[in-house]
Amino acid sequence: MTSDSVNWEAVRADFPILHQEVRGNPLIYFDSAASSQKPRQVIDALTRYYEHDNANVHRGLHELSSRATDAFEAARNKVAKFLNAASADEIIFTRGTTEGINLVAQAYGTRYVKEGDAILLTEMEHHSNLVPWQLLAERTGASLRFVPVLEDGTLDLSKLPELLTPEVKIFSFTHISNSLGTVNPVADLCRAARAVGAISVVDAAQSAGHLPVDVQALGCDFLALSGHKMCAPTGIGALYGRAEVLEKTPPYHGGGEMIVSVSLHKSTYKEAPHRFEAGTPNIAGAVGLGAAVDYLESIGRQNIAAHDGELVRYAQQRMEADVPGIRIIGPRDRSGLVGFVMESAHPHDLTTYADRYGLALRGGHHCNQPLMKKFKLPGTSRASFYFYNTKEEIDRMITILQEAARFFS
Ligand code: PLP
Question: How far, in Å, are 53, 104, 200, 238 from residue 245 at the CA level?
């Protein structure tokens, strides 16, 4: 698959922040797995919203309130289409992946998980897809189980039959590992969960903006994403919930917007998704997420995935061939990020060194402490790419890493 049909230079020009110097060098932003940059189209949508339409949603009987409500609900429709949800009612706006997973753990988990049940995770989960389940297990007396990670950074699926038994009520796993770049076989895992009567929860923080994600084809019950990792503002995300599962999930937060009627001792609640959106939502954020979805669709996620793939293969090949003392962690076949260690330097020192030259990497445990422990690493350095990056930037990174290898030896 190639991405030749897109003018990538023009795409890059959409991102004002990329065209600056940092410490006297052109910025090389290789930290998009932590947070992506925003195109002018998204920034403009936010400005337009605040300059023309800003008001509270669903409450007012005036023009601006109905415009804000229309914009907010239009964004929900866009996200639903983006994920191929059967209906926009299956899309709940959240602050991000972390909140989406906590919502499932708190609302669905508290109602349906009991002592003696099990929650199945994997050893490669981000803390956001681990700690909420630990809290649920503590509250309910359920146990946690983990699909092991093999040396090559893939899941040991041979262990699935003994782990995914009828005691498992929830199987929650990441689509793409934020440290290893592993792309998990989501549809197979969701099918396996359903076969034992468990619901599936997909952490799509690293995948939603990078490759086509079709919740119906994947067959998942819940899927959580973060807007800021896919060109949208911070503080907005979405949780997809399959209608049948959402219907039987009780509310999470209580407050305005999520009720039908309230008396002093009892309230009744709206249907999904409004039942899960108490209080004034991040309206501008949702508008920004809608604009980001439009933007990503205009490029095409197949094209984005192909371009990411070209960059990551090039980076891997050059790092292995041209930088002494580097070890890449994770499978060869990976999404758009490379986690690595330089034998002579701690990841924090290497990342700080790179910053001196305007190269933004990430160093540390990447909210994957158990995984780092498993690989007996203090952490890794991570270069993560998005479609606005170039091979020339990778060449510059290689030169900086070569100099670092000399500096630290
Ligand atoms: N899951 C994965 C795989 C991630 O990489 C991240 C963020 O790095 C998260 C969850 C948490 O996302 P957020 O902090 O946007 O809620």
Answer: 34, 10, 11, 16
Beta-bridge mates of residue 91: 240
Q: Where are the domains of the chain?
A: 8-30+300-408, 43-298
At 326, is the secondary structure helix, strand, or coil? strand
Is any atom of ligand 1 closer than 6 Å to the C-beta of 32? Answer: no
Contact of 331 with 153, CB cutoff 8 Å: yes
Cβ of 122 less than 6 Å from ligand 1: no
Per-residue model confidence as pLDDT tens for the chain (409 residues): 556 789 999 999 999 999 999 999 999 999 999 999 999 999 999 999 999 999 999 877 899 999 999 999 999 999 999 999 999 999 999 999 999 999 999 999 999 999 999 999 999 999 999 999 999 999 999 999 999 999 999 999 999 999 999 999 999 999 999 999 999 999 999 999 999 999 999 999 999 999 999 999 999 999 999 999 999 999 999 999 999 999 999 999 999 889 899 999 999 999 999 999 999 999 999 999 999 999 999 999 999 999 999 999 999 999 999 999 999 999 999 999 999 999 999 999 999 999 999 999 999 888 989 988 998 888 999 999 999 999 999 999 999 999 999 999 8
Domains 8-30+300-408 and 43-298 share a fold: no
Q: Are 155 and 183 in contact (CB under 8 A)?
A: no
Structure tokens at 181: 């770049």
User: For ligand 1, atom 5, which residue shows the shortest CA distance?
Assistant: 178
The whole-model pTM stands at: 0.97
- The DSSP code sequence of 11-60 is HHHT-GGGSSEETTEE-EE-BTTT-----HHHHHHHHHIIIII-S-SSS-
Measured CA to CA, the distance from residue 125 to residue 138 in angstroms comes to 18
Pocket perturbation via mutation, ligand 1, pick of 35, 174, 206 by most ligand atoms within 8 A of CB: 206
CA atoms within 13 A on the CB side of 118: 17
For 8-30+300-408, the fitting CATH number among 3.20.20.80, 3.90.1150.10, 3.30.70.2750, 3.20.20.70 is: 3.90.1150.10
> Does the structural domain 43-298 have CATH classification 1.40.20.10?
no
Please give the backbone phi and psi of residue 201, each rounded to the nearest 5 degrees, phi first.
Answer: -125, 125
Please provide the size of the chain in residues: 409
Catalytic residues: 367
Q: Cβ(275) to ligand 1 under 6 A?
A: no
